[in-house]
Model the fold of this input.
Amino acid sequence: MEWSTFLWTTLGAFLTLCTFSFLYKDNPFYKFAEHLVVGVSAGYFALVLWHQILIPNLFARLNDGDWYFLWLNSAQLWYLIPAALGVMMWTRFSKKKSWISRWPIALYMGIAAGMAVPREMHARVIEQLHSAMRGIIDWNNFFGSSVFDTTSGIASIIIFLGTLAALFYFFFSKEHSGVFKGISSFGIWILMIGFGASFGYTVMGRISLFVQRIQVLDDWTAVSWQGDHGGFVFFWFLVFGVFIVWAVFEIVKYFKNKGTTAES
Amino acid sequence: MMVFVFGFAMIIQYFIPHQASEWVNAFLMDWMMIIGVFALALGIWSLIKVSWDKIKYKKPNWEYAIVTLAGLFLMIFFGFDYFRHFSTPIGSDNYMYVHFYRHIVIPIQSTMFSLLAFFIASAAYRAFRARSLLATLLLIAALVIMLRFNPLLGPIQPIMEKFSVWLLNVPNLAAKRAIVIGVGLGMVATALKVILGIERAYLGKD
Amino acid sequence: MSFDRRWVFLSLAIVCVGTYLWDFSVPITISEEARSIYDEVAALKEGDMIYMSVDYDPNALAELHPTTYALAELCFRKKVKVIFGTLSNLGQGMVDQVLHDISDSLRDTATYNGVFYEGREIVNGVDYVFLGYKPYPAMVIQAMGLDFRVPFPTDYYGTPIDSIPIMQGTKNFDQCKLVVDMAAGNVAEMWITYGHGNYGVPLALAVTGVMGADMYPYLRSGQIFGLAAGLLGAAQLEKLCDNPGRAMDGMRIQLFAHILIILFIIMGNIGFLATRKLNKLK
Done:
């Protein structure tokens, strides 16, 4: 095993434990890890902006060697315009000159908003409405092959009515009363089932993040201690040992305080 | 005016299938990426400024701001291949740059998000109450999704699996479709408000 | 009934670590949406081209890396050409890591689903190209649909696109059989709106668990042809590719962690109902 591999993986494991220490309480190790990752990520992103965007998309085009203007040697000098607009953005921090930054922001917002209108309308509204109404009732397969058949006519009706009812619920311009209230109630039932499904998936998602850290720490103990699970078990005994010592300390403190309160 | 002109032009561009329209689209997308980069750089400048102010005025936890700035400048130093290469991405393969990413950014970022596993367990105990019929419905749906691949359920597991597939593809589909349609209409309405000048908060204070 | 939440944290840690040490496997049932992704990728022939968008940061690595590994290895074994790109600001490191690890594993011979694959070296520019990162996903997707060269005049390593062999004759998504997007945020919906919506490109999504349930409307409407959600989706793809990895290993821990969380929910509700009854009696 190379020393460099051991040192780097141990650094990663150390920083992992520093971050996990937040579960006990906020502490200097966690703060150190938190501030370090902010700085390193920002530095990484700065390099990404420079190497991946500014160099190939701007500077290389201003230097492609076809036509001379001042110190620039480019056939695509019009790229100076977006560069100038970008620099104008930086006046945002100046109190007197911040009005200059409104021009590139306005251009940007106009293009982004104009791009979004037809495309979002098509993808989110028209396609979804079309899908909701297409083949709304399949008479050939109305009851489906089983109760849980998702392609049956009954399922299509539930989907269509459920979508409508949920949309009724979100319509707040009219008071929810009478028949409207009944439909909205059905809508909120459907929405609750949807949120429950999302919650179930979310729990799985969150747990899997911790699972991956356990797998990585196992890899680290395998690299560092050249063992199977032996090193891994020993490592976690150490970690849990700290917690058990803390737990005993807390229990003793609790009973001591209880005794003191009873006496007073 | 500028917002209206360019916004309207982009809407019209969508409906024109001619190559000239595609060329205009490509041209503007190219420009927008370049302008956007300068806006992103503002974020990095902001971080440097805030951290520097913290150190200068000895605000609480100012020592950690040194760690932030050190991390940032070290990555920039390594990323430019120890300040030897600025115009080529050779620094992206720099040993220290790659290892800093792999052994600092990846572990800490992954671990920060893995803390959520513990918080969701804590929330499950403290906050997820079946206070009403609707809350009970939500919890039942969540339980079905969580238990669907659990072999400990024995003979019930295949039924749970089929029920979860039905739940995801029928009522969940209806709920999420309504949300998608609602969000879509909201986005279109907001975009039109921006184009027509009704919404101007993005320009900042007058 | 309230107690320090750190006991909850400790119980979860003990259950997860304990389950990890207990060697057993969980049967993985394959969903139709995950099977669709595998069927389409498995049907690709040698020389076909696909676009893989690795749109996640290290915080979603746990759920999406296994999918990326499984699909990328399958493509390289089948000698399908892959264009990698990323729309996430820390995603380049993810692609770099995938390419580095897969290059190593591809050197060994392997048999997946009864098909024998010789070990091989993959060459940058011939078997794959990594375009790199550009900001503002909606604009990048839109521009790529016109011509890859608009947002990406060079690849990640600074090589002009026109001088890369794999990109000769490749203009935009029309030359790609399909697009697979591994996404951890709203980039997935941008691919649906600006990728599939504008250019009709066949699109499959691998998303985090949090977003899984939200993608079903797009699946049903045909805007995406396949969906792998969370660690379960990744495990399903690993099983289909006959390439077990971290996802299948992680599912057994999920099992007991879910049981523990359900126990916490039940305990909390018992306490709540008991307290409510006590208050009513008072």
Summary: The longest strand of chain C covers residues 49-55.
